């Protein structure tokens, strides 16, 4: 099991940066804090993995500046083709398609569609699937000049700490929970077996609402909605009821609702609800 010396929370934090790559895992010191591992390995001048991302991109892609531009847009959360094109300032559509195709073949970017609208090209999304690349382009690449002249602790606090704790890790926790569901499904521990998993697109003209739910599964009984919470306080009944009401309002009909929580749950007893705490992911 990855990182045996860390708590379940810190396993999520460290995995969200280094993923499951064996080489990176061998460099992680579980006697140090998550912050110190990040500083020592990727977020300081001369860090062990400082040139890891740019190194393998240079080896695979001739026009590296285009890859850098695309990665920066993806790392900032732009996932639609048109948004990536406008935010990355890549010279043309065909050039962007070429870069995205190469990154997909390298398995550092993935192309996804909603499970309920898989043939709609307008709903295609592109996401960085390699954790170290995502971290590097979100926090390190655009501040390389500052990294070379600043104290690593000061750099971490100024450019990484707040966003990492409040946005980056909670988002990565969603992917970790999704991978947990896939592992459980492959092992035959989910009944009925999941046949589709991914985002779900909704468009409800009556309520004037549209958008995506990040994790929804489909099986022979119908849809299951998943909500992932990486927060300091336990998940409350009112919070769960609010999320379920939002799902119902969207028009998505689910036969079950599953909530993952870092900090557990208050005393909640709601029909069709399943609760999963963070420690279950590492049992």
Description:
The chain has helices at 8-18, 22-27, 34-41, 52-60, 64-75, 81-88, 93-105, 131-140, 144-149, 152-186, 237-250; strands spanning 109-112, 125-128, 196-204, 209-219, 222-229, 254-261, 273-277. 47% of the residues lie in helices and 17% in strands. The strands form 2 sheets. A 5-stranded mixed sheet has the order 3-4-5-6-7, sandwiched between helices. The chain is of the alpha/beta class. The longest helix is centred in the middle third of the chain and has 35 residues, at 152-186. The chain starts with 7 loop residues before the first helix and ends in a 6-residue tail after the last strand. The mean pLDDT is 93. The protein has 2 domains: 8-177, Arc Repressor Mutant, subunit A, CATH 1.10.10.10; 191-282, Trna Endonuclease, Chain: A, domain 1. InterPro entries: DUF234, Restrct_endonuc-II-like. This is DUF234 domain-containing protein. Residues 136-234 form the DUF234 domain.
């Amino acid at each position: 099991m990855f990182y045996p010396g860390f708590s379940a929370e810190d396993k999520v934090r460290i995995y969200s940066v280094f993923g499951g790559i064996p080489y990176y895992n061998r460099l992680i010191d579980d006697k140090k804090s998550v912050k110190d591992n990040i500083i020592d390995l990727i977020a300081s001048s001369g860090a062990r993995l400082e040139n890891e991302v740019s190194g393998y991109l240079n080896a695979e892609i001739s026009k590296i500046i285009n890859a850098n531009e695309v990665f920066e847009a993806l790392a900032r959360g732009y996932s639609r083709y048109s948004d990536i094109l406008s935010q990355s300032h890549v010279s043309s559509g065909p050039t962007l398609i070429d870069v995205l195709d190469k990154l997909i073949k390298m398995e550092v970017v993935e192309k996804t569609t909603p499970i309920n609208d898989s043939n709609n090209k307008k709903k295609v999304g592109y996401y960085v699937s390699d954790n170290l690349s995502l971290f590097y382009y979100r926090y390190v690449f655009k501040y390389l000049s500052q990294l070379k002249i600043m104290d690593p602790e000061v750099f971490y606090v100024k450019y990484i700490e707040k966003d990492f704790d409040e946005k980056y890790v909670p988002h990565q926790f969603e992917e970790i929970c999704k991978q947990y569901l896939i592992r459980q499904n492959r092992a035959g521990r989910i009944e009925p077996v999941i046949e589709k998993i991914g985002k779900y697109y909704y468009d409800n003209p009556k309520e004037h609402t549209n958008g995506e739910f990040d994790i929804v599964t489909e099986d022979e009984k119908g849809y299951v909605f998943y909500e992932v919470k990486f927060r300091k306080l336990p998940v409350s009944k009112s919070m769960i009821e609010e999320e379920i009401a939002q799902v119902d309002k969207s028009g998505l009909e689910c036969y079950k609702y599953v909530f993952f929580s870092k900090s557990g749950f208050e005393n909640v007893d709601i029909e069709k609800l399943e609760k999963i705490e963070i420690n279950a992911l590492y049992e």
